Amino acid sequence: MAIAASVGGLSSADTNQDEQLDMDEVIAYAMAWKHGDLWPAPPEDIPQNYVTNGGYIWKSGEQYHYDSQQTSPTCWIPDTVQFLSPKVRLADVTNQTGVRRVLPKSFAAGQTVSVRLEASPPPGTRVWTVEDTVPKGWQVVNVQGGGAWLPNMGKIRWGMFLDGQAQTLPMRSAPGRSRGGGSVRRERQFRRPYRSCGW
């Protein structure tokens, strides 16, 4: 991971460059990430953990400072926090903890099925997001729970959630055709990871 590429150590979400992240800036940043929009300041393709860090700064009083000894995005630290190790502040979990995918045991190719992610952020989480990578060949029909489907990236993104409460994130999608036709087993189709990222 590289040291932050920002103007004078400012967060890329800090559009008016005043060393604080107000609600309007954080919402605009989160919406750009969620919809896959390019951001005018680097990194233009907003990483998931930059969004949660921006929300964390906002919830911690808006003002922040830059620590050149830390990597992005943990180099932007709320002024109300003197120092916390990035390993303590950032919970970046994959399918081993925090998020569980629930879908039918088997289904026919092309048949629309209900899929849901049950997300439970770790205790103490204040801000978090979820990003799901949809298996190649699947068609997403409907995303609920405030999620956004990004077909060009093959991802669904939810959040930014501003509490540590568990969420159920539903969607409807249709699996692609298997080589032999017939039913598709979920274990083979859902090997790709999803990520939950929180502060």
Cα end-to-end separation? 18 Å
Q: Give the C-alpha Rg.
A: 18 Å
In terms of per-residue confidence, which ranges show pLDDT below 50 for 5 or more consecutive residues?
1-7, 85-96, 179-193
User: Could you tell me the mean pLDDT?
Assistant: 81
Q: What sequence of helices (H) and strands (E) makes up the elements?
A: HHEEHEEEEEEEEEEHE
Q: Structurally, how many domains make up the residues?
A: 2
Return the CATH architecture of the largest domain. Answer: Sandwich
The multimeric state of the shown protein is single chain
In spatial order, strands of the major sheet run 3-13-7-10-9
Percent range of helical residues: 10-25%
Structural class per helix/strand content? alpha+beta
Query: Care to count the β-strands?
Result: 13
Could you tell me the CATH topology label of the largest domain: Immunoglobulin-like
- Taken as a percent bin, the fraction of beta residues is 25-35%
Using the coordinates above, name the CATH class of the largest domain: Mainly Beta
Primary descriptors:
199 residues, alpha+beta, Immunoglobulin-like, five-stranded antiparallel β-sheet, four-stranded antiparallel β-sheet, 4 helices, 13 strands, 17% helix, elongated, disordered N terminus
Walk me through what this model shows.
The chain is α+β, with helices and mostly antiparallel strands and 199 residues long. It folds into 2 domains: 7-84, no CATH class; 92-198, Immunoglobulin-like, CATH 2.60.40. It is 17% helix and 30% strand. The protein is built from 4 helices and 13 strands. The strands form 4 sheets. Strands 3-13-7-10-9 form a 5-stranded antiparallel β-sheet. It has a 4-stranded antiparallel β-sheet with strand order 4-6-11-8, with no helix packed on it. Helix 1 packs antiparallel against helix 2 (48-59). The longest helix has 13 residues, at 23-35. The chain is elongated, with a radius of gyration of 18 Å.
